[in-house]
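Q: What would this chain look like folded?
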Amino acid sequence: MIDVLVVGAGIGGLTTALGLHAAGVGVRVVDAVDALRPVGVGINLLPHAVGALTEFGLGAELAATAVPTAGILHFDRHGNHIWGEPLGLARGHHWPQYSLHRGALQLILLDAVRDRLGESAVQTGTAFVRYAEPEGSGALRVTLRDVARAREFTVPVRTLVGADGLYSAVRNCLHPGEGPPLWNGVRMWRGVTEWEPVLGGRTMVIAGNNATTKLVVYPISREAETRGRALLNWVAEVRFPVHHHGAPGPVDWNRTGRLSDVLPHLSGWRIGDLDVPALLAATGSTGRILEYPMVDRDPLPWWGRGGVTLLGDAAHPMYPVGSSGGSQAILDAWALARCVALAGADRLGGLRAYEAERWGPANAVALANRAMPVDEVLRAVAERAPEGFARVEDVLTGEELAMLGEGYRRMRGSW
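A: My prediction, written as structure tokens:
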């Protein structure tokens, strides 16, 4: 009997394993990939998520790897400053806001799980297929597939946690026929490039707006910073007409994009000391550019039944616009471990308590990211001053500037 089986060895799944283990609960993690590799690009961890990982004993590893983001600055497409605010410790939070490579974070979590739970705690090459809950058995019968051998086998499980992302197979068992992810018309190109530090070296830069083209840039490597350099993560968001409700084909987070497709949208952009076309061109010549649509799913009415529940993107996939996706998954994991521990023998009560605690806040963040309240103000700047401006006060009212801060608070959640 496996006490808790976590499907998905991403950020949410691995953090769940650490939390449950700390609570004295037996846990095993399975993932369909043949090996876990440091893929992806940059990710932001908000202070509340950093606090949770610090409680799990990972504070030193994060500090050695990530950049503590000091502030955020908004510009129009011409490089004129609109608004900014401090972040993390600079804003008075107890923990920093960190920016780091998603793959680096996943390996930190993976190393911790294997060190504390044993090498066999994470089983790759093993896909979730389905589950059944025989009446009166007190256990789930979970069918898994050995991917390499194309062989299915069944294991008894007390609790099943679906942390298997946007295309969650566990979610599909609970809510069949949901359909493809929902696309908002924005395509994103992302890349990572070593560069000179920009705007002080610890700043998140956002320029333009999502009505046409938007750019996000921030550093993600403490090691590069110690050498006087910056490993810059950049995201270019370009809006296209939406001809249908679903995403334009399968969403593949590792799909290679082309520099020639994105570079024309940012021709001539210069933000402070950052030459945007040069940054993108350097990525195209030395690294890999990724491309995928901005998608999410409608909130679910419930996350679990019986001994099954969902977590992270499997429960509440959201647009990557408020630095909240990974952070919300970590908060889910922290809450699940606590609720299961407090419930003791009443495991089903613990699962329902977790869902009651996290369903509302996580879905509120997802819907706020879908509404993108910050971009409403940024679009107003572009409409009122298409050729730029000398003073932002001539373009936006004080109330509109205050809406930027309030919009971010909605997109990050209350904590």
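The mean pLDDT is 93.
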